[in-house]
Amino acid sequence: MKTTAQKWGNSLAIRVPKSVAMQVGLKAHDDLEIVVREGNVVLKPHLRRVCRLDDLVKRITSKNVHDEISTGDPAGREVWW
User: Fold this and answer.
1) What three-state secondary structure class fits 35?
2) Domains and CATH numbers, the chain
3) Strand partners, 25
4) pTM of the full predicted structure?
5) What's the CA gap between 24 and 26, in Å, rounded?
6) For residues 3 and 15, is the Cβ–Cβ distance under 8 A?
7) Are 34 and 41 spatial neighbours (Cβ–Cβ below 8 Å)?
8) How many other CB atoms sit within 10 Å of the CB of residue 75?
9) How far is CA 3 from the centre of its chain?
10) pLDDT tens string for the chain (81 positions)?
11) Measured on CA atoms in the order 37, 41, 45, 51, is the torsion positive or negative?
């Protein structure tokens, strides 16, 4: 597929055809990562990972778990068990 770079302020802009956007799940206002690879411009969707607590807890091991941290004596009417 072919497109043209156009001037936009001090930058260049390209339009991503709808068919291409749909193939990669790209929507308006999505973040993109721009990299140069072997002389080519590569646009990659910058996906934010959505982490679930269950998945994070499963990754806890005896090697990466930390000890308790002392926060000092009570400062008000809270109760420490």
Assistant:
1) strand
2) 5-58 (2.10.260.10)
3) none
4) 0.50
5) 6
6) yes
7) yes
8) 7
9) 27
10) 888 999 999 999 999 999 999 998 888 988 899 999 999 999 888 777 788 999 899 999 999 998 999 888 878 888 777
11) positive
